Amino acid sequence: MRLLIKNIRTLAGIVPADTLMLRGGEMNNSAGQIDDAWLLAEDGVIVGFGPMATLPEVEADEVVDADGRVVFPAFCDSHSHIVYAGSREGEFRDKIAGMTYQEVAARGGGILNSADRLHEASEEELYEAALPRAWRMIRSGAATLEINSGYGLTTEDELKMLRVVRRLQENLPATVKATFLGAHAVGRAFAGRQSDYVDHVCRDMIPAVAEQGVAEFVDVFCDEGFFTPEQTAQILECGGRYGLRAKIHANELASSGGVQVGIRYGALSVDHLEEANEQDVRDLAASATIPTVLPGASFFSNLPFAPARRMIEAGLPVAIASDCNPGSSPSGNMTFLWSLACIKMRLTPEEALSALTINGAAALGLSGDRGAISVGRRADVVISKPVPSLAYIPYSFGEDLVESVIIGGTKV
Ligand code: NIG
Ligand code: FE
2-73+371-411 falls under which CATH superfamily? Predict the structure, then answer.
């Protein structure tokens, strides 16, 4: 099966085939665009691209005339929580009235509210609720998604969530990666016994998750009022013994040692970072851990935006993800994140695109295979609606400018 896209106004996100992520100044990827371009995919893989003047004679099964449209790599959303039951707009009202995220949680709302509802929901109901959320993300340009557990907080309910993620993996055209986040909050049965809960996560949940092979990564909400760096270390160490790679929630509410414990345990990424300070940035710069920032959570929860500009200046490979979840970021709209990154974090449109694509892939251990335009990578691309330029997409925030999403060389 051959797909040819021709007359592309701008083909963006091109990197050399052996580039696994873009760091610091490379994120602007100024060499990574061709105006008036073509792209050819064969059996799901990019096999060629270039300026229209170089278009070879090819027989294609499908030819798309992208006149006036831009084409860029599909987004890799490396952090979401889209398997959940119900919604939390009651807490939205409370937050508008002035309550903080921590105050809502302390009252038994927040994550525990979602855990109560998830407990009541059947696997089928959870799947039926998550499927359209995943499709909305795909329609907004994502071809790769990560989904956390963490609204179960008992072994049975965590496994129930992860089985739903597996069904999504089997039924969506997008690649789906699963993360076990048993330490998202202390389950109700362990109220007031946080260290017993951590022991339970290590002794019972992680072995069960590993035995059933339903997650690839282990996560902990390492933050003020949630889990300490010491508890996080205990869980990451245990997860590592069971072959689960660390990806953690850190420094959303305070700079409380999450970055350092993530680095110490070889985390693929540390995510959130709204409160990351200069020392955190320096420690990340001396590590192989990817900083993933979540501008949707800052926007919706009225938190500071993570210092992504500073991180880029420090040479870091910043990734951006949606964090789509019912409490702190109930949207998985990828082009809105692109706008937020530009407007609120002062990233250029090209830097933000790198963060949402190749660096998101790297934050899932998938670099080399997707997230960019190069020969040999998967043909996961977005074709925009007619636009004057690439920058118009984040500029015209809130407008749906994705015309089609191609995953593995096929329009979905
Ligand atoms: O990434 N911060 C921790 N966990 C989620 C929010 C969970 C919730 O409030 O339901 C997040 O923002
Ligand atoms: Fe999250």
Answer: Urease, subunit C, domain 1 (2.30.40.10)
